[in-house]
Design goal:
Metallo-beta-lactamase, Chain A
């Protein structure tokens, strides 16, 4: 089965992930303007009209800014937990009742040839989730906006073929930076964001469990408290402690803050 994956954007300025097969195309989050999402999709040959549905991780604006526009423009169903729907910002605008779909943790949602399964994540939102996307041959896991690693997260991502994993900040950069204390405390807290160091250790664990994993994207990098090189080098260094080498054992990419990242096609 042919399948393809790309990040349309990943970071506090907006998040959107695309996954498609020959018969089904979905987005995980739509945290950019509708135009930017459409322009990004067009770069990989996909139209807004091709999108079957949008799955939302949580209600923060960098994950939902464009869902209302896309849903109204193309009559697209939007899937989110009940808690997320209750706390959805008013700026999203009206979405038709029939396009508001409620999902539950660990319950399968079948969209044509895809099975999408949400799982609980620790983040400072109403009812946030990560997602697993399964076809007959592939499993893609999306794990961002994570305050700390839980057994549920580990169980859900341990056997994926492709992983989008948060690598939000360098701890020293964050602690020494200009963010106010309350914001530093939030990011470093149990419901904040995953550091480069923790991402590296979690990834090492996944690879040790899983010989299938081929492609990993580090995502949701902080603009102020991280750099792509810092994230990549930190994760690569930690992996080397486990005798794991990017490029030899798997492919390691960086999801782009602005614009479409690498398109992975037919080789998930």
């Amino acid at each position: 089965m042919a399948a393809e994956f790309a990040t349309v954007a990943s970071g506090s300025s907006g998040n959107c992930v695309y996954f498609g097969t020959e018969s089904t195309k979905i987005l995980i989050d739509a945290g950019l303007s509708g135009k930017k999402i459409q322009d990004g999709l067009a770069e990989i040959g996909v139209s807004g009209r091709d999108i079957d549905c949008v799955f939302v991780t949580h209600e923060h604006i960098d994950h939902v800014a464009g869902i209302g526009v896309l849903s109204r423009r193309f009559d697209i169903p939007v899937f989110a937990t009940e808690g997320t729907w209750k706390c959805m910002p008013s700026s999203v605008g009206k979405i038709k009742d029939e396009n508001k779909r409620i999902i539950e943790h660990n319950k399968q949602c079948v969209i044509h040839d895809l099975c999408v399964i949400p799982y609980s994540i620790p983040h400072d939102a109403a009812e946030p989730v990560g997602y697993n996307i399964l076809t007959e041959k592939f499993k893609v896991s999306v794990a961002t906006d994570i305050g700390h690693v839980t057994e549920e997260i580990m169980e859900n991502i341990k056997d994926c073929d492709l992983l989008l994993l948060e690598s939000n900040h360098d701890i020293d950069m964050l602690k020494e930076g200009d963010y106010p204390y309350y914001l530093k405390r939030r990011i470093l807290g149990e419901k904040g964001h995953l550091s480069n160091e923790t991402a590296g250790k979690l990834l090492a664990w996944v690879i040790c469990q899983n010989s299938k994993l081929k492609n990993v994207f580090l995502g949701h990098l902080s603009k102020e408290n991280n750099t792509p090189k810092t994230a990549y080098d930190t994760v690569k260094r930690i992996l080397s402690d486990y005798n794991i080498e990017a490029g030899r054992d798997f492919n390691l990419f960086l999801a782009q803050r602005y614009g479409v990242g690498r398109l992975i096609k037919n080789e998930l």
